[in-house]
Specification:
The protein is an alpha+beta fold. It has helices spanning about 1-25, 25-55, 65-75, 115-125, 145-160, 170-180, 205-210, 220-225, 230-255, 275-310, 315-350, 360-380, 390-395, 420-460, 495-500, 505-520, 520-525; strands spanning about 105, 265, 270, 530-540, 545-550, 550-555, 560-565, 570-575, 580-590, 595-600, 605-615, 625, 630-635, 635-640, 655-660. A hairpin with an 8-residue loop joins strand 11 (about 605-615) and strand 12 (about 625). The longest helix has about 40 residues, at about 420-460. It is globular and about 90 Å long.
């Protein structure tokens, strides 16, 4: 039934697209989908900044100005003036022009409630209908767009229940947004996105490995033209796609085999589950080749400036290496902390899958908790041993790096305090991660500025003052985490846990057989519902993975999936991004039967509850719910499009009123 329902939903979406095409032409729909990708990305950034402001007891008048600012900024970062705009039209052959490319890995299409953009594009152009593109902003459709945006912002922020908020001016809000996200040297287009969402120092075991001389000295004149080229940007894009491809294959590899036998597609060909290991090996080899190329490029970038600094003198070569030590430490520390947190969350989720924790499972939780604890405690401890040069301290607006950390007071986890410890650990880990990230950004900023200054002095025959030697790193800090050394996590449940959850074909059959033995004829004479679906709505512009009680599902951007849950039970939901980084942990409280439950990932989606009238024209204002993390409601159509007509009973002389919830 689920497969059939989703297949029908996809077909209905195709038909709706064709109706739109008949009104606006084939290209308008495709261009709208293309621009929506960027709009969603920008909205997520604006939502993130709303949370940053709320944490500082500040609000804003119009969050949509921040959304627009994101698009404007990214045009500069990506050096792409068409970012967020309608793509250029192919005037020679518009019917065969394609905007969306096919991904290397495509999840089984039967499991999408909405078709992917590429399929919608092919559907819209199957019978091509030419029409001009109207590139005016959607705000022209509203009599007072600004007032509507301000009202939506007000309603959204009201859901936080925050009190006594300061209201900066729009100019102050945009200035704060710019400073928080975009006022970084490493986002300059000249660096070809090399440092955007990428830890370039993570691929090296040591700083000496970066700066060591291999063979003859660099030909500085030749290397100069090879740094941060368009080829680098292409490699970074390819690397990101391979990462997503590997994650998707891993998910398919460890998915439970169910009776419907979901098809697995890879690069346009259907593959069998037993072939996934070979495919993964091949994809990993492709990724390693790109990593090797990126490593060579990163070394050339650092050695290019280092070799010039050695010739200029003034201790600038030592200054460069000290900054590199700070970046190397911070990037490895963040990666190690994120990996330990991922391992800990996985261990807890697997242990509580069957509703009980054995002594062996608690021991595993205890081991993972101690490892996690040591990772974030180390950041607080190490902060006392790190000294920074005045330029970085001034940029941080702090007296020292150490003062960014509060006094560490969390003790080791044990059997008695584990429940309380888990609740407190996430906050301490978040504090460590935030300060380590700031250290990395500030040190990277300074490194790139110094490298530019050295290059300018070298090529233009300028003299430099003596460099600062104030940067002091932790003596002989160890390598924390390089790619490929991540902690192994358990992707499949043990036999007993699967039996308790009824997971998979064997588990479900075994549990059903046991149920028949235990309750006999009561199974057929009468039953009461003890479980329901928790709909997980992903309003983010990226796919996410949600794990809880032995279940793991991946939800595409702007779609939803369901989790099996029981009434009157609390569920810890752990959400991660495509790279495995944790987005948030949330405890969903599932109440009594008769209600519908929706988990809103990261509060990224806005919800509206509205009335639907059949047989008469009703009048009821929609109820804007904002973006709560968990919605507990009773409606007729939960995240579903209400039907155009329903069958009324003979007693329904006037008609019927139904309710719906949409995101």
């Amino acid at each position: 039934m689920v497969i059939a329902e989703r297949a029908l939903s996809r077909e209905m979406e195709f038909q709706a697209d064709l109706v739109a095409v008949s009104l606006t032409g084939s290209d308008a729909l495709i261009h709208a989908l293309h621009r929506l990708q960027v709009a969603d990305e920008a909205f997520n950034s604006a939502m993130s900044f709303v949370n940053v402001q709320l944490a500082q007891s500040k609000t804003m008048n119009n969050m949509y100005t921040v959304q627009s600012q994101y698009i404007k900024n990214m045009k500069q970062v990506l050096d792409d003036p068409l970012f967020g705009e309608s793509p250029a039209m192919d005037t020679l052959d518009p019917a065969n022009h394609r905007v969306f490319s096919s991904r290397a890995y495509n999840p089984p299409q039967m499991w999408y409630t909405h078709p992917v953009d590429k399929d919608r594009k092919d559907n819209a152009k199957r019978s091509y209908l030419a029409s001009d593109i109207d590139n005016r902003k959607a705000e022209v459709l509203f009599s007072n767009a600004a007032a509507l945006e301000e009202e939506m912002t007000k309603r959204l922020i009201a859901t936080s229940n925050a009190k006594d908020l300061e209201m900066p001016t729009e100019a102050e809000t945009l200035e704060a947004y710019q400073k928080e996200y975009f006022d970084w040297t490493f986002l300059d287009p000249k660096y070809a996105c090399n440092f955007m969402n990428r830890y370039a120092f993570l691929n090296f075991d040591s700083v000496d490995e970066i700066y060591e001389a291999e063979g003859a000295a660099l030909d500085l004149e030749r290397i100069k033209s090879q740094l941060y080229s368009d080829t680098l940007k292409q490699q970074l894009d390819q690397y990101q796609e391979l990462q997503e491809e590997i994650q998707a294959l891993e998910i398919s590899k460890h998915q439970v085999i169910t009776i419907e036998k979901r098809a697995i597609w890879h690069r346009g060909e259907q593959i069998k589950r037993k072939d996934i290991d070979d495919v993964l090996k091949s994809v990993h080899q492709e990724k390693e080749a790109i990593i090797d190329s990126l490593r060579t490029h990163d070394k050339n970038c650092r050695r290019y400036a280092y070799q010039m600094a050695q010739q200029l003198g003034g201790n600038w070569d030592q200054n460069l290496k000290s900054l590199a030590h700070l970046i190397h430490y911070a990037e490895h520390a963040v990666a190690d902390l994120n990996d330990a947190e991922r391992k800990f969350n996985n261990t807890v989720s697997v242990a509580i899958a069957d509703g009980r924790v054995s002594s062996e499972e608690f021991s595993q939780i205890h081991i993972a908790a101690n490892d996690y604890y040591k990772c974030f405690k180390a950041a607080y401890h190490d902060s006392t041993k790190i000294e920074l040069e005045p330029a970085i301290i001034q940029a941080m607006k702090a007296d020292s790096y150490e003062v960014l950390y509060e006094e560490f007071k969390l003790g080791f986890p044990d059997r008695e305090n584990m429940a309380r410890w888990i609740n407190a650990a996430a906050g301490w880990a978040a504090g460590a991660r935030q300060n380590l990230q700031l250290l990395r950004n500030m040190a990277l900023e300074r490194l790139l500025d110094v490298e530019d200054m050295i290059a300018d002095a070298y090529w233009n025959k300028k003299s430099l003052p003596t460099a600062s030697l104030a940067n002091k790193m932790i003596p002989e800090y160890k390598v924390l985490l390089t790619p490929g050394k991540e902690r192994k996590i358990q992707r499949k449940l043990k036999l007993w846990d699967r039996f308790m959850l009824g997971e998979g074909l064997f588990g479900a059959a075994s549990k059903f057989a046991a149920s028949v033995v235990l309750i006999g004829g009561a199974l057929f004479l009468g039953s009461s519902t003890t479980g329901t679906d928790l709909l997980v709505c992903n309003g983010l512009g990226i796919p996410v993975t949600v794990t809880t009680t032995g279940q793991e599902i991946t939800i595409g951007a702007h779609t939803y999936e369901s989790l099996d849950v029981s009434y009157n039970t609390d569920y810890q939901l752990i959400t991660t991004d495509p790279r495995g980084n944790q987005i948030e942990t949330y405890t969903a409280q599932i109440g009594a039967p008769g209600r519908g439950y929706v988990y809103n990932v990261a509060g990224a989606a806005l919800f509206v509850k509205y009335a639907v009238f059949y047989g008469y024209d009703g009048d009821a204002a929609p109820d804007y719910l904002g973006s709560p993390r968990l919605i507990d409601t009773k409606v007729d159509y939960l995240l579903q499009e209400p039907p155009n007509s329903i069958e009324l009973s003979s007693s329904s002389s006037r008609g019927a009123r139904k309710s719906a919830l949409t995101a």
